[in-house]
Structure formats: structure tokens, C-alpha cells
Amino acid sequence: MDEYVEDEHEFSYEWNQENGPAKWGKLRPEWKMCGKGEMQSPIDLMNKRVRLVTHLKKLTRHYKPCNATLKNRGHDMMLKFGEEGSGSITVNGTEYKLLQLHWHSPSEHTMNGRRFALELHMVHENINGSLAVVTVLYKIGRPDSFLGLLENKLSAITDQNEAEKYVDVIDPRDIKIGSRKFYRYIGSLTTPPCTQNVIWTVVKKVNTHRYFLLFFT
To answer: What is its EC number (predicted)?
Structure first.
């Protein structure tokens, strides 16, 4: 797997910076796809590359409880699972093991140009190193039970880049999908190295959570 870059100082989300998104592909040779990739993510979910799937038969989840650690990577918050493994999903007959979760605020994907308050990425990898990401979008509203479990620990490392905090056993099955419809398209990682041919599955239903969690970005 082409690892997500965890040092935020290597790149920026600010377009007017020398290490901003327009320059990512030139910062390192192994990041060239950030400038040359033809299937870049994120995109607007109304894009013609996206198709709406009306059932979850092609997305079978086999998650299980696992030890996990939270890390503030500067550009996002990551929940990384232990070596014992947190289970997998099956996409189009292929198994992808769940590696980690991370959150972006505001959302990276948009819908008809609208950006949401929060976006969860569940990153999976198959035996060949190919990636599949399941995404849940959130708007401000009623508290989400899974996010509520993590709030205190997220708050503790909000202002500490590269800080890590063990969070005990986490069960990915507690994440509310809340819909049998989702958007599916082939894209890329949204940060360097911008790996291509990532299967994106974005849950159609937008979940809710209270404003508190938006403080972490």
C-alpha cells in the first residue's frame, strides 16, 4: 500500500502555498500522480463518474472489535487499528481489510457544490495492495453515538500535532451506515501520494453529529 503521508509539514491544503494542492505532484517523485492522475478525488458526487447503487449487496461488512490508537496528523484525525485486525469488507467479491479510520472537517466530497460539516473515511486494503474507502458524511444535528465515544480523547489531542492516544477496544460495527444506498466511483487518495484506482463508496444518507467535533480541524 502507498501509505498516507502523516507529516502535515510536507504539504498544505492552502492553494496559495508553495506546497499546496497545485504543487503536490512536484514535491516528491513518488507524488507525481497528484499532478498527473486522471481519477483524482475528492469530487462532487453529482459528477458523471459517480453511479448511485441502491442496495448494499455489493458491500458486505465483516468487522470485529480491535485495539485502536488515535493520532492527530495535523491535516486529519486518524484511528488506527492494532495488528490483530478489525475485520474487512467485501466489494464486488473481493475482501478488503480495514486498516484505519480518519476524519476531515469540513468534508472533502461535495454534493451539488455543498460541503458538509464532517467526513469519515474508512480505509481498506486487499491482498494485492489495492484500496477501498467507505465514506460517511455528517451535518450538524443530533449526536452520533460512535463519535460520542471518542469525543473526550479527540479533544485531548486536538491542539497537539502528531500526538497519539490509546483508546482501548473499538468496534467498527458501531459506525452507523444508516442507508442501503450509496455512491460508487473509482478515484484516488485525497492526499499525497494520490494513489489511483481507489474504490470509493460514499453512503448516500448524511448522518448527524453535534458541533463539538468540528473543533479538531
So the answer is: 4.2.1.1
CB 121 within 8 A of CB 135: yes
- pLDDT tens for residues 187-204? 998 888 788 899 999 999
Give me the residue label for grid cell 490509546.
166
**Residue 14 pLDDT grade (very low, low, confident, very high; cuts 50, 70, 90):** low
8 A C-beta contact, residue 100 and residue 72: no
Q: Which of 9, 55, 62, 75 is catalytic?
A: 75
The span from the first CA to the last CA of the chain, in angstroms, equals: 26
Question: Tell me, what DSSP letter sits at residue 18?
Answer: T
Does 75 qualify as catalytic in the annotation?
yes
CATH superfamily, region 39-216: Alpha carbonic anhydrase (3.10.200.10)
- Burial of 167 by CB count in 10 Å (0-12 exposed, 13-18 middle, 19+ buried)? middle
